[in-house]
Amino acid sequence: MTAQDSIAGQLLVGAQRRQFVNEPGDIVAEALEGLEGAYPRLIRWNREPSFVIRAEPAPAGRVAVVSGGGSGHEPLHVGMVGEGMLDAAVPGAVFASPTAGQILAATQAAARDAGVVHVVKNYTGDVLNFAIAAEVASDDGIEVRQVLVDDDLATTSTTGDGPGRRGTAATVIVEKIVGAAAAAGADLDRVAALGRRVATTSRSMAVALAAGAHPGRAYPSFDLPSDEVEFGVGIHGERGVGRRAFATADELADQLVRPLVADLSIGRGDRVIAITNGLGATTGLELAVVHRRVTLILEAAGITIERALVGPYVTSLDMAGCSVTLTRADDELLALWDAPVRTIALSW
Amino acid sequence: MVDTAFGTDEGAHQVIEEVDGAPTDADAADGPDTTGVDATGSDGADVHGLDLAGASAWFDAFHRRFEAEAAALGDLDRRAGDGDFGNNILSALRRCRRRLDEEPPRTPGELFLGVSHGFLNTGGTSGPLFGMWFRGIGRATDAPVMTLGALAAGVADGTATVQRLGKARPGDKTMVDAMAPATDALAAAVDAGLDLPDGLARAADAARAGALATESLRARRGRAAYVGDVARGVLDPGALTVALFFSAGPPAPGRL
Known about the structure:
The complex is a heterodimer. Chain A is of the alpha/beta class. Chain A has helices at residues 3-12, 27-38, 100-110, 124-137, 170-183, 188-200, 249-264, 284-300, 331-338; strands at residues 43-46, 51-54, 64-71, 88-94, 116-121, 144-149, 202-210, 228-231, 242-245, 271-278, 304-311, 320-328. Chain A has two domains: 24-200, 3-Layer(aba) Sandwich (Rossmann fold), CATH 3.40.50; 202-337, Dihydroxyacetone kinase, domain 2 (Hypothetical Protein Tm841, Chain: A,domain 3, 2-Layer Sandwich), CATH 3.30.1180. Chain A is built from nine helices and twelve strands. In chain A, a hairpin with a 4-residue loop joins strand 1 (43-46) and strand 2 (51-54). In chain A, helix 3 (100-110) packs across helix 4 (124-137). By secondary structure, chain B is mainly alpha-helical. Chain B has a single domain (48-247), classed as Alpha Horseshoe (Serine Threonine Protein Phosphatase 5, Tetratricopeptide repeat). Chain B contains ten helices and three strands. Chain B has helices spanning 10-19, 25-28, 52-80, 85-102, 108-120, 126-138, 148-166, 176-191, 196-213, 237-247; strands at residues 37-39, 47-50, 146-147. In chain B, a hairpin with a 7-residue loop joins strand 1 and strand 2. In chain B, helix 1 (10-19) packs antiparallel against helix 3, helix 5 (108-120) packs antiparallel against helix 6 and helix 8 (176-191) runs parallel beside helix 10 (237-247). Residues 1-11, 22-36 and 38-46 of chain B have low confidence and may be disordered.
């Protein structure tokens, strides 16, 4: 890419951003305060150490479900707290793991008497801090099982070592299924096993049209020329696995879906739950157009989308772009998916 | 001793001198720590272990020295990692201080558990791993005096936990490269029947040697693993911090 291309790309795609922000360092706390004020019947924010917990605790005897991670992915994770999903969510700073101390405090507050499941996206800091919190919680007699979400196909390792695939939008599906199983009274091992099954049979792929900008920063984390897209991006503003030509919604959707179908080895007669997920700045109108194509591709392959979500669920600040997630579905998972849920982001 | 790869890097030299035990400005104000080694009588000759005052003085000395070296350690991290090490550990130590003030410990074990709490509420990955290491030390005994045997067992337990959670082995250019030799030195000191100050001196020597040896290593864990050979020639700040901790240990009364 020439310097001239870069300048042109910046002018067209990555022009200076302006944000609704006071002190950038206060953005997470102020956002939590805002959400608590908006949804007092759903959530309560514990300020220090910072975590969000259900306003009305779940009945005794239930497995508690706790998740968390860096902020900047809203509505994940706080938007998933409520009946039928998470008992508590632990927000870190923007794109940074919460501390082990925060996770421990949330785990202790959420724990009833049947153990706790931690739903953790696969990033080094998150995995370590959740593991530490689980170990310390066991001193209080709280049994914890970790469910690792690692759906991002773009980060499949070819060598077998390294940190493994990143966790992205499949987290929503894992949290829904795990939360429903806990609400139905399943025991700790059963809830964790269901979560792991969903994680194992989920894959996602994302494409960015423009990077997002950190709160308080005027420019996005990378620049894109107007005739290219960043393919295989994660949810932290990092570069993807490669640049591809900008194309129509249908063509880009094809490029997202086909590798998922191949990697999950699904075909005629198989059933899936699908999420066409916005990465922050992409409109609902565009996401619906992408999802139309996702549906057509899978129909042509004989694969049934049993349930779907279309919207921003796991975002990357104000990144423009979308991801597609497919999860293998069966009657048991669909029944858990359909079970009642009442959170900021999901409600049925 | 360490005139190797630092060139004009004043900051790194300073840390090495500090770990080496040379007096620095940080110590000048109040002189070497003479408090805190438990003695059966007032003559201070019989040293069985570490009482609360001793553990408290040890932590204070460690904190003071880290405050003095934080910028230099942060600079090492910038050369091989993401540069947040100095500030993260500094904020952890200050959090430890507040915690110890708010919930005063009654035993040396409780003091190290308070230190652990401060580190576990710190961002990044080094802070929480140190939290689990101090937790191992804190859990070693709830007695009013921590013997060398208890300290050695606690350090061994904490080091094993750090290795398990951090998935790091000796030679990976991490804090484990100072923790593991210190663990071995403490165990050997217990076997040899040494008293606590002598055992700690052995541990400090071993930790220092381990930390200095990280210079030539290629990182296999932690942030520095991402930069490959770029990290060669840079000391690991986590290992240096472990060495700093042991070198801040209370010396024997009458041996100063």
